[in-house]
Design goal:
The protein has a 7-stranded mixed sheet, sandwiched between helices. α4 packs across α5 (124-132) and α8 runs antiparallel to α9 (251-261). It folds into 2 domains: 1-40, no CATH class; 64-223 and 252-297, 3-Layer(aba) Sandwich (Rossmann fold), CATH 3.40.50.150. It has 10 helices and 7 strands. It has helices at residues 2-36, 64-80, 84-92, 95-106, 124-132, 145-158, 196-206, 224-246, 251-261, 265-274, and strands at 114-118, 137-142, 164-168, 181-187, 207-218, 277-285, 290-297.
């Protein structure tokens, strides 16, 4: 009898929590509609599967911090791989799909060209690029074996194993020859790597001259009122909710802190330029929640 009462009480508490979260989501959406006089954008954000570096080769001369911290991030993504795609769509209300499609549409390469997709995760972006560009081939690279295993199952199911190849590796030490790719993409991954200059330098090395780079990353909306709503949800609601869904106590806390640590768009643009790229533009989506940086590998005479 006591056990039955305890179970009922637990179910009742869980139901109350769900109702409270739903009510909060509805209230925020309604307030956003009033403020913007238009359909509200999603205030839910994507889980960060996203890329960090891990030194699989012991011959790399990396400091202890450069090994330990990326290893922790890698372990985090290994632990959430089982439900990563579901979490992305659920917590972003499908916005992650729209953002990936926008990035895939932005990709322009010569017919039959090869795109390097860094932080490929479960290969969602690689698959989207191939669906948008029937002649393209994609090489995906990630540091999480479990993510790649899930991605490989998708490729077999969609018959794309001949056009997409997934590799386990480190974005700071790319296992490819110089000038191998016509284009490179990286979605929501570079903020997880402290050595951004190394990653950008490696991308520059493996891209052909005039090859294009597309990097998509999170940021905060510029709208004063919406920015506050974003921070309320992103800082105080998303971490505990996302951690609960992912069965961890840190995954979405890491997402929050990594986004806040990432440099502003003008500073990141200078980092891209310093690596030898010419920045062509920044596309802001969902009022700046996600941004696509587009750059091209400059000729030696054009490099900064």
């Amino acid at each position: 009898m006591d056990q039955s009462l305890s179970r009922c009480a637990s179910l009742h508490l869980a139901l109350q929590c769900i109702i409270l979260l739903a009510a909060l989501a509805i209230a925020v959406r309604a307030l956003t509609t009033i403020i913007l006089h238009t359909d509200p954008i999603s205030l839910y954000f994507k889980c960060s599967v996203y890329f960090s570096a891990y030194p699989y080769g012991l011959h790399y001369a990396l400091s202890r911090d450069a090994i330990v911290e990326p290893y922790k991030v890698k372990q985090m993504f290994e632990s959430i791989a089982f439900s990563y795609d579901f979490q992305n769509s659920f917590l972003s209300l499908g916005q992650d799909i729209r953002w990936r499609r926008a990035l895939a549409r932005s990709v322009t390469i010569p017919q039959g060209g090869i795109v390097l997709d860094l932080a490929t995760g479960t290969a969602e972006l690689a698959i989207e690029i191939c669906s948008r560009h029937p002649e393209a081939r994609v090489i995906g690279l990630d540091f999480s074996p479990r993510m790649l295993a899930i991605g490989q199952k998708k490729l077999r199911a969609k018959g794309l194993s001949g056009r997409i190849a997934l590799n386990l590796g480190d974005a700071r030490r790319l296992p490819f020859r110089a000038e191998s790719f016509e284009g490179a993409t990286m979605a929501f991954g570079i903020r997880n790597i402290e050595e951004r200059h190394e990653v950008l330098g490696e991308i520059h090395r493996v891209l052909k001259t005039r090859g294009s780079l597309w990097i998509m990353e999170f940021d905060c909306p510029d709208h004063p009122v919406l920015g506050r709503l974003y921070r309320l949800y992103f800082d105080h609601i998303l971490p505990p909710l996302g951690n609960w869904l992912s069965r961890t106590d840190y995954a979405y806390t890491h997402l929050m802190t990594s986004v806040h640590r990432f440099p502003p768009e003008d500073e990141f643009g200078r980092e891209i330029a310093a690596a030898g790229f010419r920045v062509l533009g920044i596309r802001r989506m969902s009022l700046g929640i996600a941004k696509i940086y587009r750059a091209v590998k400059a000729c030696p005479s054009e490099a900064v």
